[in-house]
Write a structure and sequence with these properties.
The chain crosses the membrane at residues 6-25, 37-61, 81-100, 121-142, 148-169, 206-231, 251-270, 291-314, 320-345, 381-400. By secondary structure, the chain is mainly α. It has 18 helices and no strands.
Length: 402
């Protein structure tokens, strides 16, 4: 049997399994879909929407090209990508996944990246946002804001390491940049002006397109979040997660991790939020072991996020497997960094916690938690308002066409 036929049968079997499971467990499916929906409209949509719209406008107005020329001397030697990759990297870290993939795909469609450069870039520009690491994981799950330092350090240094390791991915015959005859500032301003002249859209249309494009992407992301929430819940209730956990207990033993973390690891490989929550509650596991698994889950990102990225990359010629390789590397590197940094972190931040934690992370402030809770309260209203605005833009475009 050919590989193509095996793939077809496998996909058909998975879809059939989900359909039958949802019929057999309708209450569990509904509960999981509601949880996924709440996560999307409370946290994901309001936190990502401004970044998506802003990135579209910055690309349209030529600001990204301007920054790309300025960042060229930094990004090219380190990661072998153009300077515009610095914008995708920064926005990916600030807003979280899958912003890096969306911006990379957009830059590829604009012709500002080659396929090899885009594949290098997408492998390390997708990571968790500081809000998720500090607000959801360290405060919400582990009930200790200081742990966000260790998780964030391991996550972002691991992300940087993936970029260094993937810098030679693809063709090694790179086109050398021409020597600049003018100063880098003059080159950057020229690139900004030329890009703006090339884009003939009026500001109103550019803003409308940015809103519509961002909401399209976020609706797709919401669908994947709900789908994988249901899928993960069905796997857990049908004890398939427990069966898969048995298969990786040997791997955990090799890394001297307790087998009680096997189920959180499997859950985290499918959905990052549930995996981190279960890791923080794992019995017979020390805090260090829980954080190692949480770091791996944050780096691997889960199949839910990876499916979102695959959907974003599909309209381009950017291949998915470099991104997947990057996620596997990121997961292991982050876990190893957490293990190596734990003795120093425990001595510096936990043994003398009251004296060592900076003021903005102390118990009486908890501003990450305040921001996270505020976002959950205002998120649904903001999401509905933006969807209504998107409808207005659609109507306006129809009127213009008529």
């Amino acid at each position: 049997m050919s590989l193509s036929k095996i793939k077809t049968l496998s996909l058909a079997a998975i879809v059939t399994f989900m359909a039958v499971s949802m019929v057999l467990l309708p209450e569990k499916s509904f509960e999981a879909s509601v949880q996924g929906l709440n996560m999307w409209w409370e946290i994901v949509f309001p936190s990502l929407f401004p970044f998506f719209v802003l990135s579209e406008l910055l690309i349209g107005f030529g600001v990204v090209r301007f920054l790309g020329v300025l960042l060229e001397p930094f990004m090219r030697p380190l990661f072998k990508v153009p300077g515009v990759g610095g914008f995708a990297w920064a926005m990916g870290m600030a807003s979280g996944f899958p912003a890096g993939a969306k911006i990379t795909a957009r830059l590829r469609q604009e012709g500002q990246l080659t396929r090899d450069e885009a594949e290098r870039l997408v492998s390390f520009t997708n990571c968790s946002s500081p809000l998720f690491i500090f607000g959801a994981v360290s405060v919400g799950f582990f009930q200790n804001p200081a742990l966000g330092f260790l998780l964030a350090f391991s996550h972002y240094i691991g992300n940087f390491s993936v970029g260094i390791m993937m810098r030679n991915f693809g063709t090694k015959h790179l086109i050398r940049e021409k020597k600049q005859k003018r100063s880098i500032i003059a080159e950057a301003l020229s690139a900004l002006h030329q890009t703006r002249l090339k884009n003939q859209k009026p500001i109103g249309q550019l803003l409308g397109d940015a809103v519509i494009s961002s909401i399209h992407t976020l609706l797709m992301i919401g669908g994947f979040i709900i789908l994988f929430s249901v899928f993960n819940k069905l796997l857990f209730d049908l004890h398939i997660t427990s069966f898969l956990a048995k298969l990786i207990e040997g791997v955990l033993i090799i890394f001297q991790l307790p087998v009680s973390l096997s189920i959180p690891s499997i859950a985290g490989m499918f959905e990052i939020t549930l995996g981190n929550q279960m890791a923080s509650q794992a019995a017979d596991a020390s805090l260090m072991h829980q954080l190692i698994v949480a770091s791996f889950i944050l780096g691997f990102s889960g199949f839910s996020v990876q499916a979102q990225v695959a959907s974003i990359l599909a309209p381009t010629d950017i291949r998915f497997y470099p991104f997947f390789i990057g996620r596997v590397l990121h997961g292991f590197i982050s876990g190893i960094l957490t293990f190596l940094c734990w003795p120093f972190f425990e001595r510096k931040f936990l043994s003398e916690q009251a004296a060592s934690i900076p003021v903005f992370l102390q118990e009486h402030t908890m501003w990450w938690d305040i921001l996270f809770q505020w976002l959950k309260q205002i998120g649904p209203v903001f999401t509905i308002a933006m969807l209504f605005i998107c409808i207005l833009f659609y109507v306006q475009q129809i009127v213009w066409k008529d």
